[in-house]
Write a structure and sequence with these properties.
single chain; 167 residues; mainly alpha; Ferritin; 7 helices; 0% strand; elongated
């Protein structure tokens, strides 16, 4: 029973690790660079993002624990469902360095479009295993849809500056 508690906490906390590191490494770019970007009127206020990501990472982490538990740990049956989870988590964690760190809006857009596809695939894979785990991913997919639209708009509305050109 004590060990299961540790697994539950570990799986639930794991997504927060990359999210926190992404914020920590890129935090200085937010006031300097991000605030100067042209953004649509429907862009959520900056204060919403840490709250939203805390809720979303907690939900997805716990959902991954449910899948892991239902499949009996790291069994051969878990390779695809947890592999999809790991892949989408890697793309999720890669987005801030592309967007905030490298200011590479095109790579951030490619990343988030791939992320959307992986999360949809993950949810299809998880549905037959655990419907609650799948439902816990719905708010994440909704937020990703908004974040994808926002990334597209920011990419379109903020053309990349070519090196050596000044306006």
């Amino acid at each position: 029973q004590g060990r299961m508690w540790a697994y539950t906490v570990g799986f639930t906390v794991l997504p927060h690790v990359g999210g926190f590191l992404g914020w920590f490494v890129n935090r200085k770019e937010i006031p300097v660079w991000y605030e100067k970007l042209k953004k649509p009127s429907w862009c959520p206020p900056r204060k919403i993002f840490p709250v939203a990501w805390t809720v979303l990472y907690t939900g997805m982490g716990y959902a991954s624990y449910l899948i892991w538990n239902d499949l009996g740990g790291c069994s051969s049956k878990a390779i695809v469902p947890l592999g999809l989870y790991g892949a989408q988590l890697a793309l999720n964690w890669a987005w801030p360095p592309f967007f905030f760190g490298a200011h590479n809006l095109k790579m951030a857009l490619i990343d988030i479009l791939c992320l959307d596809g992986l999360v949809i695939g993950l949810m299809c894979s998880w549905y037959r295993i655990n419907k609650i785990a799948t439902l816990l991913m719905v708010p994440y997919l909704g937020w990703l849809a908004m974040a994808t639209c926002l990334t597209i708009r920011i990419w379109k509305d903020n053309p990349e500056q070519k090196p050596g050109k000044s306006e």
